[in-house]
Amino acid sequence: MRMHLLSGGRLRMRARGYYPRAERGETFDLPVSCALFKHAQGNALFDTGCHPDAATRAAERWGETHAGYSAPIFRPEEAVVSQLHHAGLAAGDVDLVICSHLHYDHCGCNAFFPKATLVCQAREIEHAREPGAEVLGFLPGEWDLGGPVRAIEGQYDVFGDGRLTLLPMPGHTPGMMVAHAVLDQDGAFVLASDAIPVAACLTERYSPRNSWDAELFVASVDEMARLQADGATVLFGHDDAQWAGVRKGADFYA
Length: 254
Hints:
- With 254 residues, this protein is α/β, with parallel strands linked by helices.
- Helices cover 21% and strands 28% of the residues.
- Strands 4-1-2-3-5-6-7 form a 7-stranded mixed β-sheet. Strands 8-9-10-11-12 form a 5-stranded mixed β-sheet, covered by helices on one side.
């Protein structure tokens, strides 16, 4: 199995949302990361990042509040649908779209994969459909598109061979999950997405301000720390320093 890390866009946000000791008014730039897994049984895309339209029409796509909270600073071609060629694929080659959770900056390109099966925790789908969910960043136009859905509960082995396992890690949202990938040459990885958005949340064991449940968030971090202690590399969802140093695009992990 190969893993290609791909751009899902880039945002500018207030730093105190993720870094409690940041100065008031300070901002920071953060990547939105996606991962394409090429397996003998099919191709799975973990998170689809931001829709390319958000790069030029964020307020129209997300609403003014969300566009102001997480301001896009990327070009349309930096959305994941335009990055798949680095893995030698087109959108029609993707069999599974795995959503770590259903916030607009993580499932924005779902619309480009209408034949792919959407894999998501059932609890996350239920939460995203609750009244008032749009205010919290669950935008139906980004994910609820009428295609095939595989609503899972708990741990899920994607290909049935232990190579790619989805693990529930609630805290950021009720149905938040991460991907645990095992590669022959490069070892194990935990794709944390917003379960651990930046490295400081792991090293200092704290919950960002945008967490649904702070206690569950920290408990999930502890669980991932145990996977790290067992040798897994944790890939954070929005850590710019880490993103600058990982292999991306055609330069895959295997």
